[in-house]
Batch of 4 targets.
Target 1
Amino acid sequence: MFFLISYMDYKEDQNHKIISLFATDDPQNIELAFQLCVGLQANYSPAVADHLRKHVFLCLRYGLEKEYTKNLYDLLITNRNLTTLPPEIGQLVSLNSLSLGYNYLEKLPKEIGKLTELKALWVNNTRIQEIPAEIGQLSQLQELTMYENQIHHLPVEIGQLRQLKVLSIHHNRLTSIPVEIGQLSNLHRLFLNDNQLTALPTSIQRLTQLKLLRLRNNAIPKEETAKIKTWLPHCEIELDE
């Protein structure tokens, strides 16, 4: 009986200590809090669990809150000074939407391709310069938003996103678009404004479902824009005046 009371007191003391560590908002203390939770063999309070769930990637790394991460459908990590996206992201196989905007990310890990249930991916206002080829594995993706980054080119695998309806990649550094863009047969909106484009591939005319194409603030000459208009007669095209 004495041992049981002592253990309960110990566990309560550890729970208070863990919550105090989280309250500091210091990365090292948060890491220590996770280590203490592992020491408790996940036998911690609901209040501690609430704190843990705010740090999804650490949950994955330490094997905590497995049921929560397994059934996580939407993940919003914006404006958090995030510099890297850990490979553990690939374990969130139930994700439907992922928002990573307003961070300091420079690249996406190849494990992003494991999120095969993903329908919406928003990675705007970061420092990303390229999109990994594994993006083509996201067969259910319907919206890809990556505006205001530093992207120089699109991977040819972009053409594998056959369910894509919205591709927003304006305010980047694109100088060309791959011919595989013509494989996006369900695309409704394509935002390419504020890049460094001088032309579009002829395959663009295969986008028969396209309703809106934004091309303002590029370097496309008038003879090229005239061609684009004939290729997409039923699409609203926004061009420089």
Target 2
Amino acid sequence: MWTRRWCKIGWDELGHTAILFCYHTEDTTTEKSTAISLERVEINALLTDDDLLAKGGPAYAIGAWMLTDSATSSCMPLSIDTRHVFYAESNEEREAWIRDLQWVAVHSNIDNGYIIERDEQRAMLGSGSFSTVWKGIDRNTGKAWALKEINKDGLNAKGQEDIREEIEIQRRVGEHPNIVFMREFVETHSHLYIVLELLPGGALLDCIIDSQKGHFSERDALGIMSQLMQALEYIHSLKIVHR
């Protein structure tokens, strides 16, 4: 049995966690019938049951699985009782709802969008004074990305300003074959995340040190310098200076 509801996305009082508010009527100033926290959730399109369609039921289903800490790493729902199902009136409406729900969910908790096995040593790609870089798997596509995790508590106002300037530059750069691509920037109440293209080849310096002679051949060095010059030429065309 399905019931018509009017829904909107909001945040808790602290602005930390997204909430899906559902109402009995189109007037969203009235009392809410349901409030669903999106702190631990996975949002996906669902195939609709054929029997439901045969009875004239709605066709464009959205599933919201409530996750526990143990389920977060395995990408599995806790149980069937923790699944909420919603129906949109068209495929376009469903895609818009999924896009918006996934966006607020990942900004509530990065684990809603990416599987990060923090207990696995190999998942940590690097670390610094204020940040750690993790290998994260996109829950929807299964593709691996590099997630630069920055704790806000370790940054003063100037530090946060510098990070946001870095993000803006990355957005201006966009996609270029010789520059690491930034997929998205995610901000939760406690951390900043820069989601970057994962480059499995390692650092250039390590490649030089590990090479057979301890240095590149002239031909190999020429190829690498050519790529570097192409990247510099591109960012200079955008009025960006690398330092």
Target 3
Amino acid sequence: MTTILIVEDNQDFRMFLERCLNDQYHVLTAGNGIEALKVLDSNDVSIVISDIMMPEMNGLELCNRIKTDVNYSHIPVIMLTAKSTEDNIITGLKDGADDYITKPFNLNILKLRIQKILEWKADNHRNFAKGIEIAPSEITVSSIDEQLIEKAIKIVEEKMGDTDFTVEEFGATIGMTRGHLYKKLMAITGKSPIEFIRAIRIKRGRSLLEQGRTNISEVAYTVGFSPKQFSKFFREEYGCLPSEFIKK
């Protein structure tokens, strides 16, 4: 179930939102930005819904922290506030907010905004699944996430034939813990680190076959698989064996 974090210092309103959304989502709550960061660190959150005016760390500061931290920058943020001046809207959007709703608001509008953001994330996953040949810039994410995907693809390409390349090494090279790397790649691409590595390798294998490399065993080892593994994963991805693909 999709996890949503509500950040609101007014306990009554926070509980109201939680009751309204917990029939569709797994809802977590925090009373300010500092509490929210602690929740984000220990949970896989898909969307943050945050008030602006809060003690200790307000919503704008929280949004800025989320959007500038590579561990969280993929998480969409919806800002809720009673302030409807143009300056506050501009500030929120500059800090990276993905959407902005002023109080009072129709609850159905909030639910629709959440649904649209989740659909947008699903579109990103489908775009990535179409093939690794798409440029990272074609995946609709923030620039910090775009840079991370570019780096991740480059790392896997450099380790293309290394059968001993592990997720731990992948995370260490990219500068993230295994847990944060898993959450990040799942959020942006819909793939776990293992699936991400495999997808790039299989795509490279297909490219080599298309270039006229007909020795399937040689191609398999080039992209870091045994011939048996390569045939299995290739069929899962493209619906046919490499030998059948060559004949097409």
Target 4
Amino acid sequence: FGPPGTGKTMLGKWIAHAVGANFFNVELSSMLNKYVGETEKYIKAVFYLASRMSPAVIFMDEIDALVGQRTDKEEDITLRMKNQLLQQMDGVSRDGSKAVTVVGATNRPFSIDEAARRRLTKRVMVPLPDLTNRIKQISLLLTKHQSTNGRVDMSEEDLKTVGQQTEGYNGSDLANLAREAALYPVRELMSQLGDELGRVDANLSMARPLTLQDFISARTKCKPSVGAHAMDEHIRFAQEYGSA
């Protein structure tokens, strides 16, 4: 669990890859069926197939939508789906002979039903990137820019400055920031070419190098998407229910 854009979905896929397990991605849209009993059959089939193809990882992105808090006013189809999911998760945890692991990811951990939370025994917060990891990600984004013939004129100190100015940014925010910054040299090139633009085989190598100033300018347009209040909620959940 953790704020959006921190790589929780990627982490779920990496777990399966790291242990050489088959990966099953379960989504709410693929589960729900208007015909009575079909949703439960689908859930049973997923868990049965995973047990037959073990080792396996069953990954549920946005798990709060699948096993959110149950209420008296809930529609019958979603209530049956949640109950069936909980039963199957319980069966996986009890049957030690089957190497099947259920991994869930959520931006709203407090919305998960208590019965599901009990079955998800390891509850790990994926936080926003710290300064070191922000610098690493920006460096990787610049390397990707260079791989497409883009030029970069930024020192290690410039990278550190960008990292310091992007506290509170998640991975997606940093990618958006780098994308916006990379547009400044392109816009200048297009302005310089003017009427010649259609007659010249323009590419990124013709644009000036990307600089620190481009990131500073882009930062006025690309703000962090995670508020301080949301981060406080995740920290509170980690303190109350987290296992790592």
